[in-house]
Amino acid sequence: MNKLSDFFSRLGLLQQQRIFKLAASGVIAFVAIAACIAYTVAVSAASESTIVPQAGQAGELDATSRIINDILAAKQSPVGFYIGAAAVAGVALLAVWLNLGLTYAGLALLGAALFFASRLGGRAHDLGIAAVGLVGLIAAFTALLQGLRLLFMGSGPVMAVARTVLAEAVRIKVSLVFIVLIVLMMAVLPLTLDTEQPLRYRVQSFLQFSTSGAFWLIAILILTFSVSSVTLEQRDKVIWQTMTKPVSAWQYLLGKWLGVTALAGALLIVAASGVFIFTEYLRNQPAQNENRAYVAQAGQGITEDRLVLETQILTARAAVRPSPPRLNEEQFTANVEQKVEMELRTIADALRDPGALRAKRAELREQIADSLRRAVLAEYRAIDAGQTRVYTFEGLSRARESNRPIILRFKFDSGANRPDADYRITLILRGGEMRVVPLALGQYQTFPLTPDIIDAATGTVEVTVINGDLTQRTANPEAIAFAPEAMEISYAAGGFRGNFFRCVAVLWIKLGFLAMLAIAASTFLSFPVACLVSFTVFLAAEGSGFIASALENYATEDREGNTLWLPTVISKIAEVVSGTFRIYADLRPTSRIVEGLLLSWSDMLLGVLVLAIASLALFTIATLIFQRRELATYSGQ
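-> structure tokens emitted (637 positions)
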């Protein structure tokens, strides 16, 4: 036993020596570079059999061949493997320079043993993969946490408070439970996927539950931990030990925020790395009707499963919705004034003061104009049985130049959306192309279209929708309608990987804002009240997008056009809530990852700027409150 203890002691001393660190770093870099080179060679060799031959006269590719070639070319891109290799090498280098090189080498051997055990197949395969993921995620989080502590080793009260926060995070049982839950979720979630499902559903399900689950768990941890870290120190008088030293209020609060935000960043990096690596793993699994990844059965160019996965999920699509109808503003203003006068007649006796009458007139004018515009838009999105509506999509010039298909996506509602209802609509596109589509009420339907349907001169697409089957000359039983965001044409405007990391960065900024919110609330509220305030604001911010969508269909008038005052008051309150958090909700990083929608740099920077300003304002308020509290005065009790 003593010999074994001496052996491990010598290994511990060895991994602390500089020569060992330099040698180990060289080996890690060499292995990572060699792996990337080998993977690139293997992929390039395999890709020769997957690219569709060029078709058409004079070497021209028709639109379909160009689309297939462009999608199959994704198999040649080793970027995903490079990112994964860089992440693993980065964690390994961090472990080496934190004096954990041999410890992590032992964990790597354990992971390799579990991986080879998983090759036995059956349930052992799934459990082995989950165990490898669990070991890797725990190792990565531990290395990041040690690295953050080293980063905060600087002198000064801010760094000292931040170090204390990180130490407190792994000491408190509640925080530790959430950390374990996040790591376990990321390791076990792949086991829940149904291998019988098409690949696109597996990838989208994994992205949905992993990204949203990780963010919500981290957000709950950050809010709870931030509140407890500040309020409990005040309740238990622990803060006396800090505030009696030369530590100002802003230094204390900034240190708390840095520590909590760093913890959130470490957890988010681990979760995001797990999501990204496993998504790339799934991407390279055979899709439905494929012999192997990207190679279709029976000599097909590409399967529908692969086409949807690459063009609608693992991409970054820019979406364009139908342009609103152009109103005759003169007639619209006249209609508004007419309704204003009708409303004023009913309350004329109660408003004898000219000033009050003018104010009421202005208020009614704004309410009625807003209500009428919403009514016009609602009518524009509805199509009566057997009737026709033309929707114009603008700003698609860039999409026409791409090799990727454009995607028409819509969801129509009718009545109670009965699943057994037999509805059909007719779509007429540019050039007279007509499609009769069986309609699944209340469900999104997508149709890939070639970019050739876009008008080259104007960059527009006109889609004519007929509420019925034009070929059979039959109409549907009832009118159909779609919600404001339930019809769009989208096109590939970027890649999945860059979009994924931009969305993860926004998630971290959101967590930083939530940490500052909780800390600010904790400066003057008790633990339960601060938790209530923080979670209420968090839920309001996350749900503001849904509130804004619901307001589109929320009636504030009866059928005769009279104002309903209680619904109007509710609508105004909801508008304030949704408007306050509009930019926060518009970012939608999780849904953008899941749905393959682009988060542009401009949208990202605007969101970051707004959240940074809001966090700075909260920090200023919290500092002013904290400066006025007698936190370190001995009360004699």
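Confidence is low (pLDDT under 50) at residues 49-61, 633-637.
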